[in-house]
């Protein structure tokens, strides 16, 4: 049984307002906050968190019992999470009842609860709750009954859900829309809905526009990312009710594709669109020039005039339309006829096929022709392992890789063993900091041999793209989270000759593909931001 971890030693009466962070993991204790004081949560014996990615002072929280809100500030080196979204240092956040806080992004989840708010008339409260629950259940049952010929399908064990309402007809013209922030918005005014009922139609113009499109022969389609389903923040059953409620309100036949996890179906990847084309349009070829996609994740920049508007949280919807090859509009442009606002694409454009030399300077040689140690330097997705295997291993270099060997000491031992038998070595690790590189430079110095550094020349945007591409095409690779990538990026120190290198060479990524389909996938935008 889990115990309460209390920041103060004085027990609070049950009638006193309290905020409880209820652990969703059996390994961790619940945390009880019984005063409006600041409290730090992090790596400690008290919390039971021992993960090195969690700082000792990871999250600073402070409850407000009147607002029933919990203020959150990130103090740790790595990001934390709120309702599945990454939180950053230097920004203040608020959590409310039933919100999910992840002390480290993707790890150590707690549900926010407020208890003992005020004395109540328990009889009246019970009757009100019974009436509310009865009304809600009745409304849901009615919607389920009225669904008629509507149906749900689960693809690849739930990675993709497809909902087809009664009356949907296939067409060569597709009018497609994102859901949250495009067709609907929260009634509460919050960025993320508090409950499945926390929604309303985003603009009064939406139903009329959709009706006109339907009458003009368009098939109305929703493409939505709903990663919260796979993370347990919403059940499939709850979302089915929500999408049917939305369809009823829109009063037009709709087919919805729901990506429930980080898979090939998640936008901007084309899994949902491909499934529509191949399986859900009765073989009718879609005319992309006549089709359209509307979404709010459009990569728009922050605006200060005429009113201040925050920049978009991502560019996934615009990139999705670019990948498909259909016209794109924001909700404001499409429904309200407003003029486009400034926006930008990611730094890395996968469609560019720039010709470049493998090595920089271009007169550099892959092999020095003498016994040596080459230290690769690059973040995950930079292509260093591919380069080491494809270019250096065939020249006789022994590839030393920590992922294969398990730890740093094993890498050092294998390096020394090969040098002792006069075989050159390439250290295929990230080697992002001076201390890590110094271990192998010291070996080279003790053996009186040269040590060169090969630095992968790729932007963060390109590396993130490569990570996703690798996950989609090679299941043997370990999944690299954003937290791990950002942690290594913060530690990165540009190599210099003063460390003891005889030469520093930049390596450009020149991708190679096993098939035309792989290259077509690589040339798509795969990263959401």
TrEMBL record:
An example Gene Ontology molecular-function term: polynucleotide 3'-phosphatase activity
Main location: nucleus
A Gene Ontology term for the protein's cellular component: nucleus
Subcellular location: Nucleus
Name of protein: PNK FHA domain-containing protein
Annotated keywords: DNA damage, DNA repair, Hydrolase, Nucleus
Sequence ranges assigned to domain PNK FHA in this UniProt record: 19-89
GO biological process: DNA repair
Keyword Hydrolase on entry: yes
SUPFAM superfamilies named among the record's database cross-references: HAD-like, P-loop containing nucleoside triphosphate hydrolases, SMAD/FHA domain
Protein species of origin: Hermetia illucens
Pfam families assigned: AAA_33, FHA_2, PNK3P
Top-rank taxon: Eukaryota
């Amino acid at each position: 049984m889990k115990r309460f971890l209390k920041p103060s030693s004085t027990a609070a009466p049950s009638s006193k307002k309290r905020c409880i962070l209820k652990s969703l993991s059996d390994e961790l204790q619940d945390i009880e906050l019984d005063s409006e004081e600041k409290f730090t949560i992090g790596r400690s014996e008290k919390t039971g968190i021992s993960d090195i990615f969690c700082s000792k002072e990871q999250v600073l929280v402070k409850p407000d019992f009147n607002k029933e809100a919990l203020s959150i500030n990130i103090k740790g080196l790595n990001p934390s999470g709120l309702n599945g979204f990454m939180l950053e240092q230097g920004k203040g956040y608020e959590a409310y009842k039933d919100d999910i806080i992840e002390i480290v992004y993707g790890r150590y989840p707690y549900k926010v609860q407020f208890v003992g708010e005020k004395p109540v008339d328990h009889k009246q409260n019970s009757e009100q709750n019974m009436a509310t629950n009865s009304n809600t259940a009745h409304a849901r049952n009615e919607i389920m009954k009225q669904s008629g010929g509507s149906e749900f399908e689960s693809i690849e064990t739930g990675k993709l859900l497809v909902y087809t309402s009664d009356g949907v007809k296939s067409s060569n013209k597709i009018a497609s829309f994102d859901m949250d922030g495009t067709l609907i918005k929260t009634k509460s005014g919050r960025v993320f809905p508090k409950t499945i009922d926390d929604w309303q139609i985003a603009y009064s113009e939406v139903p009329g526009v959709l009706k006109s499109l339907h009458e003009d022969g368009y098939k109305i389609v929703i493409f939505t990312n709903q990663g919260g389903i796979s993370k347990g923040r919403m059940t499939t059953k709850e979302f089915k009710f929500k999408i049917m409620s939305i369809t009823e309100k829109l009063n037009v036949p709709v087919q919805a594709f729901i990506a429930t996890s980080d898979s090939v179906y998640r936008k901007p990847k084309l899994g949902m669109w491909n499934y529509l084309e191949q399986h859900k349009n009765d073989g009718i070829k879609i005319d992309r020039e006549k089709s359209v996609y509307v979404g709010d994740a459009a990569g728009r920049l922050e605006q200060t005039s005429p009113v201040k508007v925050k920049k978009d949280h991502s560019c996934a919807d615009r990139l999705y339309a670019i990948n498909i090859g259909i016209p794109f509009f924001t909700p404001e442009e499409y429904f309200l006829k407003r003029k486009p606002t400034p926006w930008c694409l990611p730094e890395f454009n996968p469609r560019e096929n720039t010709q470049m030399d493998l090595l920089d300077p271009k007169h550099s040689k892959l092999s020095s022709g003498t016994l040596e140690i080459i230290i690769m330097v690059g973040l995950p997705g930079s292509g260093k392992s591919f380069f080491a295997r494809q270019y250096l291993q065939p020249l006789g270099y022994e590839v030393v890789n920590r992922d294969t060997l398990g730890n740093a000491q094993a890498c050092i031992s294998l390096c020394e063993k090969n040098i002792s038998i006069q075989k050159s070595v390439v250290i295929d690790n990230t080697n992002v900091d001076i201390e890590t590189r110094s271990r192998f430079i010291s070996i080279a110095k003790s053996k009186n041999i040269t040590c060169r550094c090969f630095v992968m020349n790729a932007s963060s945007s390109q590396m993130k793209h490569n990570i996703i591409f690798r996950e989609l095409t090679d299941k043997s690779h370990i999944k690299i989270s954003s937290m791990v990538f950002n942690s290594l990026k913060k530690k990165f120190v540009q190599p210099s000759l003063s460390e003891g290198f005889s030469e520093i060479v930049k390596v450009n990524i020149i991708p190679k593909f096993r098939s035309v389909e792989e290259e077509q996938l690589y040339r798509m935008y795969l990263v959401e931001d």
